[in-house]
Design a protein that fits this description.
- The strands form 6 sheets. The protein has a 4-stranded mixed beta sheet, with helices on one face.
- The longest helix has 14 residues.
- With about 350 residues, it is an alpha/beta fold.
- Helices cover about 20% and strands about 15% of the residues.
Length: about 350
């Protein structure tokens, strides 16, 4: 990003929006007092109020990593496979915003509650009773949007009831009836570690969008106080690490990343060398809190919230254009494909399987 990229390259990169394979799928309380974790375990967030994502400060998303943390024995081999996915699939580490991410709605107590239908797009009618409670009374804004792309995801949080919903393949028919193929509800959200009860949740891992998705407000303040997500093309078959509750991996091999596995950006990497202020903010979060593999997809990506609800209230201006590229170094529309281009994928580090899992 130290110079403008050619328009042709920007057009090529614009194809790199993640297209995940179909998969089955900020709270009201004050922060709990942080306690020192045992050696080799993440440390709870210190020195600030409740994390932006609203989940428990003691959950896996909101605990800082120790500077010296054990790595998976095959960390570099795993990272090399992620790097290969990047190189062989559009050559970029992109940020999904309005497509294959999610809008995040904070709704009021008086937002009308609607009974949604189970659309059963996977022809699994036995799942209808499993998701029935999540669909029974959903506070649904009249102007609600879902993400673009086949996932059609949406995230809803109601602070007054401390309840949270994620939905996958959500849609409204001509009569105004909402439906979803999968998703879930989390009650007592502010005390939840950021994990859906299996098999609920809109992602393939049962990890909620609200836990890891980058917020516009976080980029504006220059601080992200939670782990981010990472999605790559090849994930390991039949393998999910905590905090994931399930997976849709499909590639055999010990050096293929497991869904739910935690990564971080090498803490010795000099974040100040990055051109974009947003990239510096994101990279610091990758060092301090790490990244968790939440799904597989068609490219290497990380998620940021869908800006269209914000745009509807602010003259249609996409905030990411200025946040990702304030000096207008790249062609308009290409910002989300190149903002992370200076972060070296080979400086990622894979943490051990089930890293940070609570011991009983």
């Amino acid at each position: 990003m130290k110079r403008a990229i050619p328009v042709a390259l920007a057009v090529s990169l614009s194809l790199a929006v993640l297209s995940p394979q179909p998969s089955l799928a900020s709270g009201p309380d004050q922060a709990e007092a942080a306690a020192r974790a045992p050696a080799g375990h993440p440390r709870p967030s210190l020195g600030h109020h409740r994390p932006t994502n609203g989940f428990s400060p003691r959950g896996p998303w909101n605990t800082r990593l120790p500077r010296h943390v054990p790595l998976a024995p095959n960390s570099q081999a795993i990272v090399n496979n992620i790097k290969s996915d990047k190189e062989n699939n559009y050559g970029s580490w992109a940020i999904n915003t309005d497509t294959y991410s999610t809008p995040i709605y904070h709704v009021g107590r008086r937002t009308p509650k609607k009974r949604w239908k189970f659309s059963d797009c996977l022809n699994l009618p036995e799942l209808a009773p499993v998701i029935a409670d999540s669909l029974a009374a959903v506070p649904t804004p009249d102007d609600m949007l879902v993400s673009q792309g086949t996932d059609a995801s949406v995230t809803i949080y109601q602070p007054s009831t401390d309840t949270y919903w994620d939905f996958w393949r959500a849609e409204r028919d001509a009569a105004g009836q909402w439906s979803a193929c999968w998703g879930g509800k989390i009650e007592n959200y502010s005390k939840n570690p950021g994990i859906f009860e299996n098999p609920l949740g809109a992602t393939a891992t049962g990890l909620p969008f609200g836990a890891f998705t980058i917020r516009i407000e976080e980029l504006r303040r220059g601080r992200i106080d939670h782990a981010l997500n990472i999605v790559t093309v090849r994930t390991r078959a039949g393998c999910h690490a905590w905090p994931a509750t399930r997976d849709d991996g499909f590639v055999e091999g010990e050096d293929i990343p497991c869904e739910g596995q935690r990564f971080r950006l090498d803490p010795t990497f000099d974040v100040s060398t990055l051109t974009s202020p947003a990239a510096r903010t994101i990279a610091r979060a990758m060092q301090e809190y790490g990244l968790i593999m939440t799904d597989k997809g068609g490219a290497l990506v990380t998620y940021a919230e869908d800006p269209r609800p914000y745009m509807a209230e602010n003259g249609g201006v996409d905030p990411y254009t200025a946040l990702f590229d304030p000096d207008d170094l790249v062609p308009d529309g290409s910002e989300k494909y190149v903002v992370l281009s200076e972060i070296p994928v080979d400086r990622l580090q894979a943490l051990p399987y089930d890293y940070g899992r609570p011991t009983r």
